[in-house]
Every structure is written in structure tokens, then in C-alpha cells.
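Hey, sorry to bother you again with one of my protein questions. I've been puzzling over a protein and I'd love to understand its fold better. Take your time with it, there's no hurry, and the full record follows here:
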Amino acid sequence: MTSNACSLTPPSITSAIVCWQYFADCLTKTSSTFTANQNIFGKVYFPRLIVPLATVSSNLVRLGIQFLLFIAVYIYFLIMKVEVAPNAYALLLPVLIIMLAGLALGFGILISSLTTKYRDLTILFTFIIQLWMYATPIIYPLSTMSPGRQWIMALNPVTSIVEAFKFGTMGVGTFNWGQLAYSFVFMLVLLGVGVVVFNKVQRSFMDTV
């Protein structure tokens, strides 16, 4: 495990928010894909999975814009001589983005499948996403928490991704290969379960939406 217990700086918080915003946007939109596009699904058949995949892919454009703004903030703080320490772990950024996209897609598929029968779940899930942000070390450093609480926080598969993002770009936070591997395996299992559930319920989508 590699860590830096420094308090979070404004640019490091910005990097975490960029990460979270992409995940939250993808998750929110994919979770309502099937109810929001029921008219299209009722007129023509095509692989339903294309829609959430397109959502996750199109959000990469917004992520790119946000990342450019982050770089601008980053350069500003370099000029102002705010201490930042990027390192080689920043090379993992493409992998981290893929993991965020995979988690958002997996959760989104599951939720969208459930909302075809339980419409109120969409409202509840919106509230859950807001709480989820506070359960992720976005505006506070994970290293300041007790080891027991860190272990609990690490159960959140997004935690290790955000921490790795902050550590690679800013040198602040905690990097743990084991926790990152857990998040990666979690993503693969989630995607597998999501696809299985999706395939079981897609035939009855138009009967329930």
C-alpha cells in the first residue's frame, strides 16, 4: 500500500469530483434508459444494451471537458506554488476510467431492469446516489480515518478508484493494489450479473414499462 496522509488540496478535491461526476452521470442516465426510451423500444428492435453503452461512451466527451478544466486548475495551482506531486500511477487513468464506466454500466443495467416493474425505485436511487457520494472519499482524505473505518469504506468499489486517481494526479491519498483489484473484480462480477439479469427481463420490458 502506498499512501500520503497530506490533507486534501483544492486541485485534489477537483480531481476526485471529476471522477465522481462521470460515474454519477453515467449511473443516473443508464439506470433510467429503458423507461426513458420505451417508445423507441416499442417501435423497432435492436440490441437494448446499445443504449446504456452509448450513454457511457458519450459521457466521455463531458469527462474530457471536465478534465481540461481540471488541468487548468492544476496549472494555476502550480503557478501559485501549491504543493502537488503527480507520479507514475497517473498512467493508470485510462484503466480507472474504464472501471468507473464498468461499475456505472453494471449498476445501471440492474437498476433499469428493476425500474421496469418498480417505478418508484428511480426516485429512491437518485437519493441513494447522493448518499453514495458522502460514502466515497471525495471531499475528505481516507487516510485520516481509523483502520477499521478505512476497511469499511474500501468495501465501496468506487473508493479505491477515486483514491488512486487522487494519488496518481496529485500525490495525495492512498493507493492500494489489493483494493484496486477488489474493485476490478467487483466490476467484472457486477457486469456479468447485470447482463444475465438484463437478458432475463428484456423480453418482458414492453409488457411492464
In short: The two ends are 47 Å apart (CA to CA). The first strand starts at residue 2 and ends at 4. The beta strands are 2-4, 173-175. The chain has a mean pLDDT of 83.
